[in-house]
């Protein structure tokens, strides 16, 4: 982790914190959720505990989409982590780096670690906002599966931004990641919600371990496919033919 | 003795053949010059020799090993490619430190010496974004020479430099040759080519040939 990435991480976490600040201060969400939980199935707010979603089974409402603004934040700050090296000084970088695969794996792993930190931070924030729910009563494996799914969701968006950025520049890369996140939010209430990386981050309190593992597995599969696609791009990329960013 | 052998190389990009059946041989301790108009294929050829792009046909060998299959890139390569820069938000010294860290062949002292050799101040606090065109050219040259490369590929090395700067860089290139480096230069500046190079090639429409005087 270099200083540059630590600063990016600090800014990312700060922005996510600010996005949640209103609710955190007023604990508005507690009250709303408590009222909702009385009228609905209390168990359905389990996902909200860790990810900030309401009614995971019926789709999202406007306030959920506002909460999901945080999905756009990681690609904004980490969406150029891989693409910048290829676009900006890639020519001088890769004439010294004789193993592109090792470089790519290292970069991808560091993005996964950042995604994990962001997921942990976000889930903790949401847990604080729903403090009436006893976090201590949730078995660790269930929490781990939720964290895993959220981490992979963030990782997918960051990797997508990077891979698209290699071809079309960082702005287009970010735009594609944000559009992909929005599409996945809309898919939550569609018949094919199982392929939505956002749906796969929503869990019910009484959801079976098998169902939770399937959700995490689907996100894992998408993340692995994206990783493989990125590796193919990096291996075959001809440097210096097209510069996706404007230099100097 | 290091050697580059280019054998029947062609490169096609979007149905356009930008390099046509080129065969060349280079040895260390010599400077090879390339002249030709914009779009004649000089930069493309240099990128191919550097291992940044792959030939559509033919092969580039470094010391007998085929680039792209047996060897990803030429080890210990110094490169200056036109219109390719460094991270604009960092100082020149920091940019070079980042690049030097990849292989850890040199320390800060050698990086500072390289920056000084090209006529810049290693302690300059300005970011590369604030450099003049000539300074950007010099810092890119410093990154090329700092690790004492075996092969030096310079595309328009004296671009944007004033007269004193041009002479300083020519001396630097001569020094690299004397050190035993294999140097390839492409330049619009005929004087660069004629005063520095041992062998001069002309490129036109992707075809490479010896210049009349060489023949």
Low-confidence spans of chain A: 37-47, 49-59, 243-248
Give the terminus-to-terminus CA distance of chain A: 26 Å
Please provide the count of β strands of chain B: 10
Distance between the termini of chain B: 25 Å
Mind summarizing the main beta sheet of chain B?
6 strands, mixed
Overall mean confidence score, pLDDT of chain A: 75
Summed up, the helix count of chain B is 6
Kindly provide the radius of gyration of chain A, computed on alpha-carbon positions and rounded to a whole number of angstroms: 19 Å
- Total domains of chain A, how many? 1
Give the overall silhouette of chain A. globular
* SSE ordering of chain A: HHHHHHHHHHH
Biggest interface and its residues per chain?
A: A-B, 19 and 30 residues
Unreliable spans of chain B: none
Q: Look at the structure and give the mean pLDDT of chain B.
A: 90
Structural notes for this entry:
The complex is a heterodimer of chains A (248) and B (215). With 248 residues, chain A is mainly alpha-helical. Chain A has one domain. Helices cover 68% and strands 0% of the residues of chain A. The longest helix of chain A has 30 residues, at 100-129. Chain A is globular and about 55 Å long. Residues 37-47, 49-59 and 243-248 of chain A have low confidence and may be disordered. Chain B has 215 residues and is α/β, with parallel strands linked by helices. Chain B has a domain at 87-148. In chain B, 31% of the residues lie in helices and 28% in strands. Chain B contains six helices and ten strands. Chain B has helices spanning 42-49, 92-103, 108-117, 133-145, 163-179, 190-196, and strands at residues 3-13, 16-27, 31-35, 57-62, 65-66, 77-80, 151-155, 182-186, 199-204, 207-210. Chain B has a six-stranded mixed beta sheet, with helices on both faces. In chain B, strands 2-1-4-5 form a four-stranded antiparallel beta sheet, covered by helices on one side. In chain B, strand 4 and strand 5 form a beta hairpin. In chain B, helix 3 packs across helix 4. Chain B is globular and about 45 Å long. The two termini of chain B are 25 Å apart. The model of chain B has no long low-confidence stretch (mean pLDDT 90). Chains A and B meet through helix 7 of A and helix 2 and helix 4 of B.
């Amino acid at each position: 982790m270099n200083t540059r990435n630590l600063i990016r991480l600090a800014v990312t976490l700060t922005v996510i914190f600010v996005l949640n600040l209103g609710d955190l201060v007023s604990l508005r969400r507690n009250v709303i959720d408590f009222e909702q939980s009385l009228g609905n199935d209390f168990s359905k707010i389990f996902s909200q505990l860790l990810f900030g979603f309401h009614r995971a089974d019926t789709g999202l409402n406007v306030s959920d989409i506002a909460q999901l603004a945080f999905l756009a934040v990681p690609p904004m700050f980490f969406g150029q982590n891989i693409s910048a090296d290829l676009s900006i000084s890639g020519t001088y970088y890769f004439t010294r780096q004789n193993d592109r695969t090792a470089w790519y794996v290292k970069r991808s792993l560091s993005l996964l670690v950042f995604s994990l930190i962001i997921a942990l931070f976000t889930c903790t924030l949401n847990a604080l906002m729903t403090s009436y729910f006893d976090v201590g009563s949730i078995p660790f494996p269930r929490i781990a599966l939720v964290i895993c799914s959220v981490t992979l969701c963030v990782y997918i968006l960051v990797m997508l931004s990077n891979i698209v950025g290699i071809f079309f520049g960082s702005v287009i890369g970010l735009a594609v990641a944000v559009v992909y996140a929005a599409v996945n939010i809309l898919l939550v209430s569609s018949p094919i919600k199982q392929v939505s990386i956002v749906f796969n981050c929503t869990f019910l309190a009484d959801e079976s371990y098998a169902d939770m593992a399937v959700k995490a597995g689907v996100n894992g599969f998408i993340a692995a496919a994206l990783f493989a696609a990125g590796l193919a791009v990096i291996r075959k990329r001809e440097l210096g033919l097209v510069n996706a960013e404007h230099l100097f | 003795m290091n050697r580059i052998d280019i054998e029947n190389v062609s490169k096609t990009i979007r149905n356009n053949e930008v390099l046509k059946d080129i065969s060349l041989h280079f040895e260390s301790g010599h400077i090879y010059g390339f002249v030709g108009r914009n779009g004649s294929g000089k930069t493309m050829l240099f990128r191919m020799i550097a291992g940044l792009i792959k030939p559509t046909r033919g092969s580039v060998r470094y010391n007998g090993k085929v680039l792209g299959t047996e060897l990803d890139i030429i080890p210990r390569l110094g490169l200056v490619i036109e219109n390719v820069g460094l991270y604009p938000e960092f100082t020149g010294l920091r940019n070079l430190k980042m690049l030097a860290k990849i292989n850890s062949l040199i320390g800060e002292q050698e990086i500072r010496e390289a920056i000084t050799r090209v006529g810049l101040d290693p302690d300059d606090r300005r970011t590369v974004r604030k450099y003049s065109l000539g300074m950007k050219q010099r810092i890119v040259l410093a990154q090329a020479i700092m690790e004492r490369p075996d092969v030096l590929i310079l595309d328009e090395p004296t671009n944007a430099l004033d007269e004193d700067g041009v002479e300083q860089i020519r001396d630097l290139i001569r020094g690299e040759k004397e050190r035993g480096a294999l140097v390839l230069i492409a330049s619009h500046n005929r004087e660069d080519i004629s005063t520095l190079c041992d062998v001069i090639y002309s490129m036109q429409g992707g075809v490479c040939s010896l210049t009349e005087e060489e023949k």
